[in-house]
Amino acid sequence: MTKIVTYKEGRLDKYYIPALLVGLKVTLKQFYKTLFLGQATTINYPEEKREYSQRFRGEHFISVDPTKTENCTACYLCQTVCPADCITIVAGERPEEENPFGVKKEKRPVSFDIDALRCCFCGFCEEACPKDAIKLSRNYEMATLDRETAIYDLDHLKREVKGRG
Amino acid sequence: MTTSEALTKPKMTIDGQVVEFEPGDTIMRAAERARVDKTIPRFCYHPGLPVAGTCRMCAVEVEKAPKLMTACSTPAADGMVVLTQSDRVRKSRSGVMEMLLANHPLDCPVCDQAGECSLQDYSYEYGPSKSEFKEDKRVWKEATTKALSERLTLNMNRCIHCERCVRFTEDVTKTNELLMDNRGWHKELTTALDEGMFNEYQGNVADICPVGAITFNDFRFQKRVWFLKEKVGICDGCAKGCSIYADEEKGTVHRYRARFNAEVNKHWICDEGRMSFHRYQNAERVIHPLLSASGSLNATTWETVVPWLLSEMKKARRILLLIGTDASSEEAATIAQMLPSFSSADFVVRSWNGTNGVQSSVDDAALDHLLRRRDHTSNTRGIESLGIKPWNSATEQNFDLAIYFRCGRATLPPVMAQKEIAWGVFDLPEIQRFAAVLPGLSTLEKFGTYTNCDQVTQSFEIVVKGPGGTASVRKVLDGMKLKSSTPVREVVRDTI
Predict the structure, then answer these.
(1) CB-nearest partner of A106 from B109, B145, B222
(2) CA–centroid distance for B420 within its chain
(3) Residue of B nearest to A71 (CA)
(4) Is the N or C terminus of chain B more exposed, i.e. has fewer CB atoms within 10 Å?
(5) What is the mean pLDDT of chain A?
(6) CB B157 to CB A75 under 8 A?
(7) CB count in 10 Å sphere of residue B229
(8) Nearest-by-CA chain B residue for A109
């Protein structure tokens, strides 16, 4: 049973002026705070950036070792756990001449694609990774001009990220 | 022996369940017969190999026996009472697991066996959650992975020394290529010769390896096994028709594994058959109808090809219908019966094989003591039982039109007629001489029946969907019925 609430307009409501003043009060308060007290609520994005939590989950990256070799061993655990089905890995064998690590890194991702448009940033991949290879950085600026750019390949994922970005 | 004794089988009790067994069985065999063997873990025991009793994982408690007995090697006796899950047994298995895991690298994420690994499963079920082993693990520093042959890769660190592989080369292939060097801590699997392994059944070694120590290069690093769906099928690589599991994901077959079939292949399949699924998944396969126009074959549609084929068949006066011996019995019978009814021409139905010079099952012979056959098509016997005779290219000539139906295995016959039409599974390099190509389905993509070289008839089911514009024989013939204006002449089976 829906309760119907009716509001009867009084004479003051018909002129709209009092309601306007109520709204202007909030505006003027913020105007005064920004102009004279320097207490702005907004920031000058993109010159200024908001500080996010250390645990914020943003754009993905794959950690690399000092020789710029990815830590990923293409175990497919992230692809298995991914609820959005956005990770696609093709595994292969690292050529022997490029592999000073022996059996530790003999398996490598030939391609590693993350479809950021499908990703729901749950961070399960990060949790599942036994090598701490895939991580989510704190970068939240992921806007692109086309869909292709939003599908991150291995080279993009291996880019340099300081700390957690 | 009196009659009543011969009829009553000896009985034993496994976990409170009374099971019958054949005299001479071991406890494990008796449990397998009664299908209660899931509760007995095993590493070294394999039903297709002789018993070794090295892993001690299958130890079970036998009442009135002072110690635990290995189920794989203890003969079953009448009235025996066996406990497979008692506390003593579980404690013993936990100890075995801890010993095995002491030197096993925990590289499951990289290991290809993960997901179907006995060590993983039993560790989860019986293993201790922690290890008392504080020392350094044994690591083979030089050759952590080495090639046993160009088909197999060995990672010795993962080996648990069950010696299934050694026994396989000793007793199944009888080639004795593998052996264990040294003893105890330094026990290492090596090949007897520097050349490595050379038998044709190496893939089975990777199959029976309970851990990821030996991996098959064709499948190594290709896929994690938990993504794969296990479908049953038949290998069509030769006249043997081995039973297989075809593991498939999203319409792509990634590997074949042997499926136990006592009458055909036991537990094994050959390497050639194991890798034969690539035959149907290569980029060169014709998967859309092609029709020759102005000197070259062009892609077209079924709507164009079928009326064209009908008109060609009407025009011709003597037609050769050549059926490859790799077609299923159903396909061959349907084509041989139906196709002549679309034309008033003189139809000659013949079969063609051509692999290794084989034309009929008389030419077929075994290549070794296990499975491989000379005949590389799957249904020579079945086509013969339909009454279709092999084509004699020397005497039977002068055809206006020839239709060649095959499913990817039979070879290309010599020139049959002025105008030749290919129907079935063909590759791009093979089709230059044909006037049209009608893409058909391979063994993986259809259902049907094959009769193998030993007269065993087996049916098989669809594993994956046919790629692109491929169509089944029935669909094509239905389309021809719709397009043909004249009523279809009925043909009785006996005339073919």
Answers:
(1) B145
(2) 33
(3) B110
(4) N
(5) 88
(6) no
(7) 13
(8) B221
d(CA B234, CA B273): 10
A94 inside 8 A of chain B by CB? no
Min Cα–Cα distance to chain B from A104, Å: 8
Q: Can you give the pLDDT at residue B167?
A: 93
Q: Which residues contact B481 (CB under 8 A, 6 or more apart)?
A: B488
B310 and B419 inside one domain = yes
Query: Within this chain, do residues B382 and B300 fall inside the same structural domain, yes or no?
Result: yes
Burial of A66 (0-12, 13-18, 19+ CB in 10 A): exposed
Provide the whole-model pTM: 0.83
Same domain, B61 and B143: no
pLDDT of residue A164: 67
Here the tokens at position B371 are 């499975």
Do residues B168 and B81 share a domain? no
* Residues B441-465: tens digit of each pLDDT: 999 999 999 998 888 999 999 999 9
- A35: CB partners within 8 A, 6+ apart: none
Say if residue A41's pLDDT is above 90. no
Nearest to B155 among A76, A93, A103 (CB): A103
pLDDT computed for residue B495 by the predictor: 43
Non-local CB neighbours of B410 within 8 Å, separated by 6+ positions = B324, B325, B326, B352, B353, B354, B355, B377
Domain membership of residue B49 (yes or no) is yes
- Overall domain count for chain B: 3
B150 contact residues in A (CB cutoff 8 A):
none
Residue B280: inside a domain, yes or no? no
Sequence-ordered list of residues with C-beta below 8 angstroms from that of A21, at least 6 positions apart, any chain: none
Determine, yes or no, domain membership for B199. yes
Residues of chain B whose pLDDT is less than 50?
1, 492-496
Q: Is the pLDDT of residue A162 over 80?
A: no
Amino acid B245: pLDDT: 94
Q: B172 and B308 share a domain?
A: no
CATH of the domain at B221: 3.30.70.20
- From A65's Cα to the closest Cα of chain B, the distance in A is 18
Q: Do the Cβ atoms of A130 and B224 come within 8 Å? A: no
* Chain B contact set for A131 (CB, 8 A): 109
Determine contact: A77 vs chain B, CB below 8 A: yes
Contacts of B159 in chain A (CB under 8 A): none
The boundaries of the domain holding residue A126 are: 60-157
User: What distance in Å separates the CA atoms of residue B149 and residue A65, rounded to the nearest whole number?
Assistant: 32
Domain residues for B378? 290-495
- The tens digit of pLDDT for each residue in B346-367 reads 888 888 888 888 888 888 888 8
* B443: helix, strand or coil: helix
* DSSP annotation string for B91-151: HHHHHHHHHHHHS----TTT-TTTTS-HHHHHHHHT--SS----SPPP--SS-SEEESSSS
pLDDT computed for residue B131 by the predictor: 85
Q: Do B221 and B297 have their domain in common?
A: no
Chain B residue numbers with beta carbons less than 8 Å from the beta carbon of A96 are: none
Residue from A72, A75, A81, A103 whose CB has the most chain B CBs within 10 Å, to mutate: A103
Q: For chain B, positions 226-245, list CB contacts with chain A under 8 A.
A: 226-227
Bridge pairing between strands B318-324 and B346-352: parallel
* Among B441, B440, B474, CA closest to B460: B441
Q: B143 touching A, CB under 8 A?
A: no
In angstroms, the CA B372 to CA B366 distance is 6
Residue B311 lies in a domain: yes
Kindly report the nearest CA distance between residue A107 and chain B, in angstroms: 7
- What pLDDT does B496 receive? 41
Q: Are the C-beta atoms of B68 and B83 separated by less than 8 Å?
A: no
